[in-house]
Amino acid sequence: MAEPGIVIIGGGLAAAQTAIQLRQLRFQGAITILSAEDVAPYWKPPLSKSILQGTEPAESAWIRPPEFWARRRIDLRLNTPAARLNPVAKTIITTNGDVLPYSHAVLATGAANVVPPLPGLNLPGVYALRSLADALALRDAALPGLRVAVLGGGFIGLEAASALTARGATVTVIEREPRLLARVASPEASAAVLALHRRHGVTILLGCAAAHAAGTNHVQLVSLEDGQEVPCDLLLVCVGIRPETRLAEAAGLACQDGILVDTNMRTTDPGILALGDCARFPSTRYGRMLRLESIQNAIDGAAAAAATICGQPAPYDPLPMISSIQFDHPLDFIGLADGTDATRVISHGPEHIVLHTKSGILQSAECQNATPETTASIRQAIATGEPFSAVVADAHAQA
Fold it and tell me: Residue 384 — very low, low, confident or very high, per pLDDT cuts 50/70/90?
């Protein structure tokens, strides 16, 4: 049996960045990545944007070129999911029967799409959007002039609506909540995003729950609970994700809407770490446990996990940030509006910024078309607890 090393379970950004960070911290031991996918690790944001729109090739999404991993002595094993994690023996068994000993195991298992229990979702023409293969399949099917229904008005659904509209499709977004981005955005920010999509010709149906999809040998319509029917040639289902915790639960690790970790990314077994979409960590900043679904969380969490493994632990307490691009309009959501008591809106031409304060101190912001300088200034203000008046003065100065 090989000498124990670092075994990273997952083939996405969190897994890749952990391996990269370990080498940057001069870790010299063996590093193995077990990926269920058949391609090297890639960035997921382009899947619902440039890859789906067809403006960039699949290779543009690679985190590093395929030859990078061997050069850095990182054993990237594709098509090799982990089947079982044994914390007592400190081994991982793959689906092909390999037994890998580890000094530390890293769970970067990500999340899986939620599939609503609706009849008709097994019809040809119904798509998901989680992997590169998903994006390429939908891109190839979404020919100009086709009607596409998108089930779900969250970030992925709206980004896909933008990309598909740019491809020449006629898009209808069906959202069961009374507003877009209801889980993460304020009513003011939701209204701005709604206006953006309607200006570009997207039909948005709010407060509408899907009942079933139907068609003869191919999806042809989505029937809503209120009796409406939405004709479509393609249906994209984007109603959310759930953290992938099955491996952790089977190994006896504590899980609650994610794998529970401490501020150094350690699970309830100190030899096993978890990060990214699958992990829930304690936030001193917000005084509660958080599970973040963002690129920044994957990158920063990987740095924290690698530092812990290398004996240089530092508390992980990030300022949450989510970025999106829809119809070439950048959207930046900075911080959480926990306990805020006032909302202010600043508009300068195309810039639309919603600020949330508590006792006059800036807590979070939702920005549309803000410049990088403005978003950097707001991030700094939230991180340092600047008063609202100072942020407004700075925003006017940059306008």
Answer: confident
Three-state secondary structure along the chain? CCCCEEEEECCCHHHHHHHHHHHHCCCCCCEEEECCCCCCCECCHHHHCHHHHCCCCHHHHECCCHHHHHHCCEEEECCCCEEEEECCCCEEEECCCCEEEEEEEEECCCEEECCCCCCCCCCCCEECCCCHHHHHHHHHHCCCCCEEEEECCCHHHHHHHHHHHHCCCEEEEEECCCCCCCCCCCHHHHHHHHHHHHHCCCEEEECCCEEEEECCCCCCEEEECCCCEEECCEEEECCCEEECCHHHHHCCCCECCCEECCCCCECCCCCEEECHHHEEEEECCCCEEECCCCHHHHHHHHHHHHHHHCCCCCCCCCCCEEEEEECCEEEEEECCCCCCCEEEEEEECCEEEEEEEECCEEEEEEEECCCHHHHHHHHHHHHHCCEHHHHHHHHHHHC
Range 342-367 average pLDDT: 89
CATH number of 5-112+242-309: 3.90.650.10, 3.40.50.2300, 3.50.50.60, 3.40.50.10490?
3.50.50.60
| Tens digits of residue pLDDT in 81-95 | 999 999 999 999 999
The mean of the pLDDT values for the chain is 94
